[in-house]
Amino acid sequence: MTDKVLDRVMGGRVVACSDEGFAPAENLLAPRAPEFRFGVFLPGKGQEFDSWETRRHNPEAPDWVILELGTPGAISTVDIDTHWHDGNHGERGALLALEGAPGEDPTRGDARWVPLLAASDLEGHAHNVFRTPAGAAGRWTHVMLENHPDGGIARLRCYPGRAPEAVDPGENPVRRLRHEAPIPRGGDRAHAAPGAEAIAARWAQVAPGALVDIACEAFGGRVVGTSNNRYGHSQQLLAEAAPVSMGDGWETSRSRGPDHADHVVVALARPWVIEELEVDFRYFVLNNPVDLRVLGAVSEGGAGLDEATWVEVLARTPVKALAGASLRVEGPGLRSRGPFTHLRLETYPDGGANRLRVLARAP
Fold this sequence. Notes:
The termini are far apart. This protein folds into two domains: 3-178, Sandwich (Jelly Rolls), CATH 2.60.120.260; 196-361, Jelly Rolls (Sandwich), CATH 2.60.120.260. It has helices at residues 196-204, 332-335; strands at residues 13-17, 41-42, 46-47, 52-53, 63-73, 77-81, 92-98, 114-121, 126-131, 140-148, 152-153, 155-159, 174-178, 211-213, 222-226, 250-251, 262-267, 274-280, 291-297, 311-318, 326-330, 342-348, 352-353, 355-361. Helices cover 4% and strands 35% of the residues. A five-stranded antiparallel β-sheet has the order 1-5-10-7-8, with no helix packed on it. A five-stranded antiparallel β-sheet has the order 15-17-22-19-20, with no helix packed on it.
């Protein structure tokens, strides 16, 4: 291997890391190209990724990892590769370096850290290759990669000179090169709701006075609008069967603004008074929302569903602590509102849920 394509990270080790919720930081060092197995979910985590991926909604951003280099020396070019992460990648990346001793375990607060790359925008599913002239003259033994504010980064590569020709920026300070292979996604057609005949058969089984989930697709509930279906189609929220994984639900992209909210609008099967609401986060243990809110509206055939028609059914409520559990709301506060033909579930700032259940009593 020539000096031009020598990667100083290879053969190194992870010293310390702020978070490895979804995937371990040691993947940053792997010599192989990142792999992706669509639809493979790990218990207690989610979609399997061959990368370093941290949990959502980091309250102490940025996330960070300290690595000891496999080969100490100068660093003139770095590649922060977000392969297979798009919408869940780190928004920005920064790199610091330190001259220490082999086997040393420096901390994040060590005074010897020298910035080589200020926090810089990262493109998803891409090589993000930066020149780092501040590192060209050092004999660095350790680097610290910052992940702003959180998200996934597949590989880190640090070169003493230029990067491999296929990704090198040439005379430019930065090059962002998108990976050609598309990321497999379930898409909006990944879930088929029951037809009219099956729905009628279910209603024929309902006894007077029985509690019915009027959001459930088995009784005719339908999603009629959503802000984002990035990782799981919102119609899955209304499935009758219990969820089986994080992929069996609605999950949005990671948002990048403090005032962001995602939403899904559900046409209820019947305009009845609501007895109980449930939002199930069973398999969303690292990426459920921070807060949620539920609004209701009355509309004939879904016409005129503008902001002026919506009534607050459930005020904005913290739900981060309910990761892996459910939010259940019942009582006269719900019954005093409605009946509604539509509900709007809002998640702040983003996140996922497995199921939405809206129980009402049949007349």
